[in-house]
């Protein structure tokens, strides 16, 4: 298994190709999405901002970002579904683009020849949207939630810039991540996943209170207020699973080997640095040939992608030569 740390930490800086590196230009965003104006006001420092503890404000900001930067004019979510922060999600896409470029003479491959499998695509379809617009990649999105898949499909159907960029597949067995999903003829440049972070509903609620504490709301201190509302939303399957992130990631690793010839790279977000030693142990046990840890920014914290491949560098270059034009 190759050296695990491959790229330097990005710290608080987003990827160089990430269009969200600067501060939010609210006048420009409002011009793209006038509905955002109702949520913009001076903050404690006198700067224009929104209340990031308000789910409606966060959703309006997302609509404006998608419209302004990606030309996605029709985007919405069913009530209560995850509304992810876009800047950090974009970094995952650009980070994986750089990883593919290492097998392609430093050139990021573009176009529909690049096939990506998004495990847990969600109703928001955030990764397929960003990857389709930024690089023209073709996505397959899986989920255990029919309503989420229906909404993801509708987003792609309603936006011309996204047309034909997403195939949705329902995963009937939540215990299987790849089995029953990857078909015999499928070939994927990489798989990606933002696994459920928490281990239980109570754990998820505690995480919400910690987040609200950082935003300065009274819910964090239990001041007799109603239960806190998730500012980014999320259904139970989006936020938690038994055993939390570590169990989910280890299951994904153990189930990846049967598909080692159909995926150039497998990857997943790992939000907790303390989980990395166990992740590396699991990858060593299944015989991953290359493992890369790609540090990046995720909102107000540092996260990382762990990517693994069962192919040698020579095999990776042959894959690239046979499938990509650039």
Automatic annotation (TrEMBL):
It is found in: Cytoplasm. The keyword NAD does not apply. One of its GO terms (molecular function) is 23S rRNA (adenine(1618)-N(6))-methyltransferase activity. It catalyses: adenosine(1618) in 23S rRNA + S-adenosyl-L-methionine = N(6)-methyladenosine(1618) in 23S rRNA + S-adenosyl-L-homocysteine + H(+). It comes from the Bacteria. One of its GO terms (cellular component) is cytoplasm. Specifically methylates the adenine in position 1618 of 23S rRNA. HAMAP family: 23SrRNA_methyltr_F (MF_01848). This is Ribosomal RNA large subunit methyltransferase F. It comes from Iodobacter fluviatilis.
């Amino acid at each position: 298994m190759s050296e695990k740390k491959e790229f330097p930490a990005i710290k608080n800086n987003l990827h160089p190709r990430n269009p969200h590196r600067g501060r939010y230009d609210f006048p420009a965003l409002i011009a793209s999405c006038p509905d955002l104006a109702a949520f913009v006001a001076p903050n404690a420092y006198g700067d224009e901002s929104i209340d990031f503890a308000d789910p409606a404000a966060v959703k309006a900001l997302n609509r404006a970002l998608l419209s302004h930067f990606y030309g996605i004019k029709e985007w919405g979510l069913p009530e209560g579904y995850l509304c992810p922060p876009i800047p950090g999600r974009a970094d995952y896409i650009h980070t994986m683009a750089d990883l593919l470029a290492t097998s392609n003479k430093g050139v990021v491959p573009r176009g529909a020849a690049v096939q990506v499998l998004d495990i847990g695509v969600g109703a928001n379809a955030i990764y397929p949207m960003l990857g389709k617009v930024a690089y023209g990649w073709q996505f397959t999105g899986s989920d255990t939630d029919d309503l989420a898949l229906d909404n993801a499909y509708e987003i792609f159907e309603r936006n011309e810039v996204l047309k034909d960029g997403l195939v949705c597949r329902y995963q009937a067995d939540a215990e299987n991540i790849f089995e029953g999903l990857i078909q015999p003829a499928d070939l994927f440049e990489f798989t990606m996943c933002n696994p459920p972070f928490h281990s239980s509903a109570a754990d998820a609620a505690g995480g919400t209170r910690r987040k609200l504490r950082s935003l300065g709301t009274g819910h964090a201190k239990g001041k007799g207020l109603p239960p806190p509302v998730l500012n980014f939303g999320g259904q139970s399957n989006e936020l938690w699973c038994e055993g939390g992130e570590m169990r989910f990631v280890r299951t994904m690793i153990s189930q990846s080997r049967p598909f080692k010839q159909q995926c150039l790279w497998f990857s997943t977000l790992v939000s907790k640095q303390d989980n990395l030693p166990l992740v590396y142990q699991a990858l060593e046990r299944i015989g991953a040939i290359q493992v890369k840890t790609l540090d990046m920014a995720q909102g107000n914290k540092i996260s990382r992608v762990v990517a693994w491949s069962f192919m040698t560098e020579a095999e990776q270059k042959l894959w690239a030569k046979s499938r990509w034009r650039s």
